[in-house]
Design goal:
Elements: H1 2-19, E1 28-34, H2 39-47, H3 56-60, E2 63-67, E3 87-92, E4 95-101, H4 106-119
Parallel strand pairs: 1-2
Antiparallel strand pairs: 1-3, 3-4
């Protein structure tokens, strides 16, 4: 599984470099809403946090952490307040464009994040290969 993830990450990094000129100019960031004692936040921290900044996704949408009760960045406009943790909110130019509520595990997280990035116009659509 780790080998496949590494291979996929390398392919996506190459694709990101090739498509850099066509990606959206929007400033993207991924806000992770967390709280102390959240076991799923801890699981994300163990499985994803160490590699996230090194991935194409992490370079396109850098991570910003916020506590559930705030304060939230003043330049961010959420569609609705998060109600549980973790919640991952993709923000483009200060406006929420989508979210992942909960942490469904490493394999599902990457697919859901890639889908959000595609919907935001910052990620190439799946080719079906």
């Amino acid at each position: 599984m780790a080998f496949m993830r590494s291979l996929a990450t390398a392919a996506l990094a190459a694709m990101t470099l090739l498509l850099a000129g066509t990606l959206s100019a929007a400033e993207l960031r991924l806000i992770m809403v967390e709280q102390p004692g959240c076991i799923y936040c801890a699981r994300w921290d163990a499985q994803i946090a160490p590699i996230y900044p090194k991935t194409p996704e992490g370079r396109i949408a850098p991570l910003e952490r916020v506590q559930l009760r705030g304060p939230y960045p003043p330049d961010v406009r959420l569609q609705r307040p998060p109600t549980f943790t973790p919640t991952f909110i993709l923000v483009a130019d200060g406006a929420e464009v989508g979210r992942i509520e909960g942490y469904p595990g490493e394999d599902f997280f990457w697919g859901l994040l890639d889908q959000l990035l595609q919907e935001a116009g910052a990620w190439p659509a799946e080719t079906g290969q």
